[in-house]
Amino acid sequence: MLPRLSRPQALTVCALPVVALIAAAVFVPLPFSVAQPGMTANVLGENKGAQVITISGAPVRETSGQLRMTTIEATGPDANVSLEDVIDGWFATDRAVMPRDAVYPSGNSVKEIERHNAEQMRQSQDAAAQAALKYLGVDDKNVKVTLRLADVGGPSAGLLFSLGIVDKLDGDGSGGDLTGGRTIAGTGTITADGKVGAVGGVGLKTQAARRDGATVFLVPKAECAEAGSELPKGLRLVPVTTLKGAVDALVALEKGKGSVPSC
User: Fold this and answer.
1) CA 98 from centroid of its chain's CA atoms
2) How many CA atoms lie less than 13 Å away from 99 in the CB half-sphere?
3) What are the residue boundaries of the Lon proteolytic domain, all occurrences included (predicted)?
4) Contact of 176 with 207, CB cutoff 8 Å
5) If you average pLDDT over residues 26-52, what whole number do you get?
């Protein structure tokens, strides 16, 4: 027969597994990534010494203002993220804790993930060029668009690539710049028929945009609430669902006429 334990002894025995679990959680890597605002790049200009958008086969405009694509910077797919890292990131306003599978494809090696992100970027660039030329009614057999953006993967720059091509070829459609001379930032995937898709991490991207001088941020409409939850002061959100809608919103902003959507 087992001896009867006093209440303090019983509590101590029961607490031992809990303490062991907490200790393990502190030191065992967790399936999360900690992200922060990343770099931005003006797609109308150069990035790391190379022109981001190069167009041949059609006249190209001189542009003013900036169209800045935005990124987040996350801990690597093979990084060890501890409970302390998660807690710190959870309460920080300039960081976010995200499931690792939401940032990187699950079950892949670092090299496979790099190849996957590079392929997504290539597909995004192709779709961005097709969407822009289709919007402008330009024959893509006569016009060649080359897009270069070093050290950036994934599809989230698609919308800004398309807008950059439109601005370089047509501006606002009546001789002015699509940006109106402003620094415009944004994010969003793009399909070949001009539909804008959600990307994730928009709260951090708005911080990167404001840090680098943007006053307007184009956000996929489905992510309005997330983008507005901790919106930096001085940054205006403009929700979009299509390339045409994004162009129309920027033209309305530039001319001070028409309806500009808001979150």
Assistant:
1) 14
2) 4
3) 154-237
4) no
5) 85
Domain ranges of the chain: 27-255
Which residues, in sequence order, are CB contacts of 17 under 8 Å at separation 6+?
none
Look at residue 122 in the predicted model and tell me its pLDDT: 92
CATH class of 27-255: alpha beta
Q: Is 39 left (phi over 0), alpha (psi -120 to 50) or beta?
A: beta
Residue type for position 209: A
Which residue, among 154, 58, 143, 149, has the nearest Cα to 102 in the 3D structure?
A: 154
The closest alpha carbon to 141, from 127, 155, 130, 125, belongs to: 130
Q: How far, in whole angstroms, is CA 145 from its chain's centroid?
A: 22
| Cα separation, 142 vs 124, whole angstroms | 20
Going 211 to 217 to 218 to 219, the CA torsion angle's sign is positive
Predicted structure pTM score:
0.83
Please report, rounded to a whole number, the percentage of residues in the chain having pLDDT higher than 70. 85
- Burial letters for 196-209: b for 16+ Cβ neighbours within 10 Å, e otherwise? bbebbbbbbbbbbb
The type of residue at 241 is T
Burial class (CB in 10 A: 0-12, 13-18, 19+), 190: buried
Confidence of residue 35 (pLDDT cuts 50, 70, 90): confident
Rounded mean pLDDT of the chain? Answer: 86
pLDDT in tens, 174-232: 999 999 999 999 999 999 999 999 998 999 999 999 999 999 999 999 999 999 998 99
Residue carrying the six token digits 């370089």: 168
Confidence of residue 10 (pLDDT cuts 50, 70, 90): very low
